[in-house]
Amino acid sequence: MRISLHKISPFPFLCTFCRNSRAMSSSSYETWSKDELIARLQELEGSNNYLQNSTAKSLARKRPDSPLLAPSTRQSNKFDFASYPRRKIALKFCYSGWEYNGLAYQLKPTPLPTVEGVIFDALTRTRLIDPAAGYDGCSWEKCGRTDRGVSAAGQVISLWVRSVLEENMNQTVAQGPTSAVEDSIEEPAIDEESTMLDDGFGSLSLNDRDEELPAPLSTPARTSKPELDYVAILNRVLPPTIRILAWSPVSPTFSARFACKCRHYKYFFSSERLDISKMRDAASRLLGLHDFRNMCKLDPAKQITIFDRRILRADIDPVDPSTSAASSSMYVLNLIGTAFLYHQVRHIMAVLFLVGRGLEHPSVVTSLLNTKEGLESFQPGESHEVVDSKPQYQMADALPLMLWDCMYSDDDVDWRTDGYESTSDQSNDSTEDGRGIYHLLHSTRSRSQIYLALNQHFLDAASNFFPEPWATTKEGVVGIRFGGNVMIETPLGGGTSRKLQQYVPLLKRKRLDPVYVVNERWRNGKGFRRDQRRMAAGENEDE
Questions:
Q1: Which of 51, 136, 163, 167 is placed for a possible disulfide with 85 were both Cys, Cβ 3.0 to 4.6 Å?
Q2: DSSP string for 468-518
Q3: What transmembrane ranges does the database entry give (predicted)?
Q4: How many CB atoms lie within 10 A of CB 10?
């Protein structure tokens, strides 16, 4: 019995093609007519397409998610956020500012990634927030904005995230008073000048609803069902230059920005060729409620008219408390306030550097705060001057500045490092167990100390051939030899400085326009054009 090949072959057209090919193989194409050659090419193309389609469909049967299958047979992998509980939390985290283009997410492309952008991507990658909903969809709020180059050790954001606790199933998102996107539009763009380390966290499953992490061997078994371990989950996917330190459950109306009682900034600097006692005198004049319009960068887009800010602490201390003031070379300005203006800390530090170098008297701080007659009290013997608009001067470098902490009431936050309540006896046994966050940051510090030792030896090697450049100017202040002359050096922090042939005192410099003039000019210029664009966009939407 003869069986037809068409009945058993999965590719009957291909079998026909093979038979025809064998039949024609003995013939020479040179004797074929044009029509026969065209027919032959069409036959070859048809067999090739048939083979490709048949192979694709065969593979599709092995992949249920293939788009080649009908929608009814396809399995959907879309993550349904609406089917999961949600809760509002606060995240406390640190980051290396020099690696990023500032904290705030920007609508326009930036040379470096932003901290918020990286954290948002980590939250979406771990399916803690819905990427389609954006920043507004999770009521994203930050405590304090830091600009490009500025670091933070205790930054805080608040937002709604996925939960595994069923009691959070009916929680509704309460929209906050502001959002990350709005902040990135309103605030001006910044105009200033790896290998991943093993963090010891292991792998992360993103598809399990109950993402309970395996506990270390030394950790006793936990009986109560925990919340998601937000700290460990996020640190697994974040770069080592951003670390989540803790999380806290918060109320639906909590705002990371407006619930903050005060913010603590630190500015680190070397005491070389600086008079620390004079700098402390100048810093002490910052305490209390003052008008800081002359110690900040004016942002006319915000139309700010009130520049009063309260400073709670302004101390200059050795970085290492165990060292005496006489032997310490590294100092830090500890500045705590209820709120801060744009670039306020860096402007304050620039003035303190001028005082420490002997170019300004400590009373210059009082004068800069004295924006109206009788607003500030001067010490006996000091000249009184009203400074109603800001003199021109350069603010200090961004690198040494750190947002050290954002402080909240204990009634608002309850920081924890894992998914268990802090009142539990088991909460001290974190799954992190020092293997990840602490070990990574400790290793980073150790590596930085190696760089310090290397740079010191580079300097020692250069000292064998070149003398120190510092000298005393004819004005009696510290200067630097440059081009055969001794120029005045004004420190700006972070190893940066400016060299001047002649120093002009702050109060004798050219003044910027008063605040009301700058605000009005912006309203009639950029502000007017912005409003026109918004009106045009609104009309187009209505149409």
A1: 163
A2: --EEE-TTSSEEEEETTEEEEEEEEETTEEEEESS---GGGSPBPPPHHHH
A3: none
A4: 8
Residue 26: per-residue pLDDT = 43
Cα gap 419→229, rounded to integer Å: 5
Q: How far apart are CA 54 and CA 305, in angstroms?
A: 72
* Each residue's pLDDT tens digit, 290-345: 999 999 999 999 999 999 999 999 999 999 887 766 667 899 999 999 999 999 99
Catalytic machinery residues: 147
Residue type at 100 in one-letter notation? Y
Enumerate residues 6+ apart whose C-beta is below 8 A from 120. 105, 129, 135, 140, 180
Q: Which two tokens stand for residue 389?
A: 């608009």
Whether residue 126 contacts residue 206, with contact meaning beta carbons closer than 8 Å, is answered with yes
Instruction: Give the per-residue pLDDT at 194.
Output: 33
Computed from CA positions of residues 454, 460, 464, 469, in that sequence, does the dihedral angle turn out positive or negative? positive
The whole-angstrom separation of Cα 373 and Cα 357 is 29
Tokens of 404: 């050290």
Closest CA to 496 of 400, 369, 355, 365: 400
Q: Which two tokens stand for residue 431?
A: 């799954």
For tokens 């068409």, the residue is 6
Distances in whole angstroms, Cα of residue 187 to Cα of each of 103, 122, 146, 184, 340: 12, 24, 12, 6, 14
Q: Under a CB-based contact definition with an 8 Å cutoff, are residues 64 and 75 in contact?
A: yes
Backbone φ and ψ of 178, nearest 5°: -150, 170
What sign does the CA torsion over 114, 96, 140, 185 have? Answer: negative
